[in-house]
Amino acid sequence: MKELNDVEVIINNKRYTLCGYESDAYLQMVASYINDKYDLFKQQDSYARLETDIKNTLMQINIADDYFKEKEKVRTLEDELEAKNNELFDIKHEVISLQTKLDELKKELDKEKEDSIEAQKQIVKLETELKEREHKK
Amino acid sequence: MKELNDVEVIINNKRYTLCGYESDAYLQMVASYINDKYDLFKQQDSYARLETDIKNTLMQINIADDYFKEKEKVRTLEDELEAKNNELFDIKHEVISLQTKLDELKKELDKEKEDSIEAQKQIVKLETELKEREHKK
C-alpha cells in the first residue's frame, strides 16, 4: 500500500503543501511542467495584461490540450498495436501451415526413399538372376 | 491551412471567447472535460473553503496528472509496439527459412521421383530380358 505524503512544491513562485499518495519526485515533475508553462506564457507581452481569471482558464486549457494530444497518441498506438496483433496472428497461422506442409513432404520423401531402396534391391536381385542364367547356359 | 476561429466556451460558469486554430468541437470537448473536474471538486465540502489560488493550482495539478498518466500509457504502448515489431521481424525470418526448407525438400522429392521412374524402367527392362531368356531355353 502506498503511503500518504506531505509534499512541498513551488508553482508560479508560490509554495504549496500537497497531501497525497503521489511521490515527491512525481509531484516535483508535475510542478516543473506547470512552471515551464508559466514561463512560456510570461514571455508573451499580452499575457501580463490579462485578468487572473482568464490567465487561469488559459493555463487549464493549455494543460488539457496536452492531455488530449497524448490521449490521441494512445488511441493511434492502440490501433497500431491491434493491427500488429492481427498481422502476428495471420503470420503464426502461416508458420503452422508451412510446418504442416514440411512434415507432409518429409513423410513423402521418406516413403519415396524406402521405395527406392526396395527398387534397388529388386534390380540387384534381377541382375543376379540374369548373371546366374548366363552361367547356366 | 487551418483557419483562425473565435470560439465561445463556458468554463466554471464563466463565458470566454478563445481565438485559435482549434475547432469549436475540440474546444467544447476541452471545456466539458474541465467543467467535469470542477463538478467533482465541488462535491467535496472542503473545496469551497479553499483560497482561489490553491483551487487553481489543484486544478492545474489534477489536469497535469491526467496528462502524465496518458504520457505513461504512450510510453508503455510504444514499448509493446516495439516488442511486437521485433516478434514480427523474427517470425518473418522463420517464414522465409521454412519456405527455403520447403523448396529444398520439393527439389529433393522431385529428384527422388525421377530416380524412381528410372529404377522402374530398369526393373521392367531386366524382367523382360529374363522372360526372353526363359523363352529361348
TrEMBL record, chains A, B:
The keyword Coiled coil applies. It holds the Pfam family ZapA. It comes from the Bacteria. SUPFAM superfamilies: Cell division protein ZapA-like. Keywords: Cell cycle, Cell division, Coiled coil. The keyword Transcription regulation does not apply. InterPro entries: Bac_CellDiv_Activator, Cell_div_ZapA-like, Cell_div_ZapA-like_sf. Residues 67-136 form a coiled coil. One of its GO terms (biological process) is cell division. This is Cell division protein ZapA.
